[in-house]
Amino acid sequence: MPELFYLYIFMLAAFTGYEVIARVPVILHTPLMSGSNFVHGVVLVGAMVVLGHARTPGEQAIGFFAVFLGAANAAGGYVVTERMLAMFRRDKPVAAPSRESSREAVK
């Protein structure tokens, strides 16, 4: 019976996550990704705790797999966030418009 409860919680979390992400405006995706990277860090710590309490080789294998995937997800999220933030950086400072160009714009 607990397996069905866990499956229900997983499906509810997946549906809720999909609905929340689908309604977020595009401009807020980068801050949302940064927040999700933090959550993945918590998941990684939880997976390491569970791995530390694993007794059988099967539990250890699943725990190792969870730690590996959690670490890869967190690291990949930070790389993608850094790349997205780099897209918004300006390489050159924006020059103030000169008087001549503003006069030409008025004409």
From TrEMBL:
Kindly state one GO CC term assigned in the UniProt record. Answer: plasma membrane
Q: Which InterPro entries match?
A: NADP_transhyd_a_C (IPR024605)
Q: Which domain of life is it from?
A: Bacteria
Q: Name one GO molecular function term.
A: proton-translocating NAD(P)+ transhydrogenase activity
**Membrane topology of this protein:** Multi-pass membrane protein
Main localisation, per the record? Answer: membrane
Which chain regions cross the lipid bilayer? 6-26, 38-55, 61-80
Question: Which catalysed reactions does the entry list for this protein?
Answer: NAD(+) + NADPH + H(+)(in) = NADH + NADP(+) + H(+)(out)
User: In which compartments does the protein localize?
Assistant: Cell inner membrane
Pfam families in the cross-refs? PNTB_4TM
Looking at its record, which EC class is this enzyme?
A: translocase
NAD(P) transhydrogenase alpha subunit C-terminal domain: which residues? Answer: 7-90
Q: Name the Gene Ontology biological process terms.
A: NADPH regeneration
Does the record's keyword annotation contain Transmembrane helix? Answer: yes
Could you say which EC number(s) this protein's record lists?
A: 7.1.1.1
Q: What is this protein called?
A: proton-translocating NAD(P)(+) transhydrogenase
Keywords for the protein's UniProt record, in alphabetical order: Cell inner membrane, Cell membrane, Membrane, NAD, NADP, Translocase, Transmembrane, Transmembrane helix
Report the function annotation for this chain: The transhydrogenation between NADH and NADP is coupled to respiration and ATP hydrolysis and functions as a proton pump across the membrane.
